[in-house]
Amino acid sequence: MSDIQFRLGKKRFYDNTKFPRGFAKSGDFTLAEEEILIFYGETMLGLETGQLDPENAEEKHFLKVLDNPVKAKSKLERTWLKYAQLARGRKRFHTLNGRSKPDASSEDFTEDTSLTEED
User: Fold this and answer.
1) What is the full per-residue pLDDT of the chain (119 aa) written as tens digits?
2) Total domains in the fold of the chain
3) What pTM was estimated for this model as a whole?
4) Helices 75-88 and 57-67: crossing angle, nearest 10°?
């Protein structure tokens, strides 16, 4: 992380609304991604919201990545995109079946007694 030109945040970044137990304990982020978010998250959020102006090429590239996520090349940029998707996107919910109610047009199960009758 020493070759990063990105500014450190003035304070540590936490999202107690979406990740109240921390980023890594949520199961969605690795320990390295958690460190990136904690140390650089405030700066990335400021750049994204327009509260901060970019000071170097890496921060300018970060703003371009926000408009076009395909251009993400650094771990820092990919981590922020992942955070934004998880924090602001819809939470995936998995069920055991695809339908919540049985379809009215589906056939009811009826036992076919013609196969089990003995002549």
Assistant:
1) 456 788 888 999 888 888 888 888 888 888 999 999 999 999 999 999 989 898 999 989 999 998 888 888 899 999 999 988 888 876 566 566 656 565 555 555 566 666 655 55
2) 1
3) 0.68
4) 40
DSSP string, 49-99: HTSS---SHHHHHHHHHHH-GGG--SHHHHHHHHHHHHHHSPPP---SSS-
CA pair distance 77, 36, nearest whole angstrom:
10
Q: Dihedral through CA 39, CA 12, CA 69, CA 2, nearest 10? A: -10
User: Among residues 20, 21, 25, 36, which one has the least CA distance to residue 83?
Assistant: 36
- Separation of alpha carbons 72 and 81, rounded Å: 9
- In 3D, which of 77, 18, 71, 7 has the Cα closest to residue 43? 7
Residue 68 is part of which domain span?
24-87
| Residue owning tokens 């199961």 | 27
**Cα 33 to Cα 83: distance, rounded to the nearest angstrom:** 9
The answer as to whether 66 is a domain residue is: yes
